[in-house]
Amino acid sequence: MGSRLRITWLPNRECVAEHRGNGNFVVVKTRNTKLHVGDTFVCHLMIQGEPLFLDHVIHDGLAPLGFVAGKRGGVSITII
Fold first, then answer.
1. What is the DSSP letter of 62?
2. Contact 66, 51 (CB under 8 A)
3. Distances (CA, A) of 67 to 1, 2, 32, 34, 57
4. Tens place of pLDDT for every residue, the chain, 80 residues?
5. pTM metric for this prediction
């Protein structure tokens, strides 16, 4: 809990998310993505080089939705 992940994907997209426990994350930094700082999501499985499927994304207070990062080429994940 409290670990931060830097997730990047093409073209030039970045999201830093902080783990809040039990697969729950909060976005703390973004660049060139539809996710915003403060958005939350659930993800229980992250595989380097594969697309990343985020569940129960709460974005700008709207109803939960799904989000896929790295549809082409997958994602790169780094613990920071």
1. P
2. no
3. 22, 22, 15, 9, 7
4. 789 999 999 999 999 999 999 999 999 999 999 999 999 999 999 999 999 999 999 998 889 999 999 999 999 999 99
5. 0.92
Q: How far apart are CA 39 and CA 76, in angstroms?
A: 20
Predicted pLDDT of residue 76: 98
* DSSP assignment letter at 9: E
pLDDT of res. 60: 84
C-alpha to C-alpha distance for 54 and 69, rounded to whole angstroms: 8
Distance CA 18, CA 30 (A): 12
Residues in the chain: 80
Contact 71, 53 (CB under 8 A): no
Residue 18: closest CA among 33, 39, 45, 32: 39
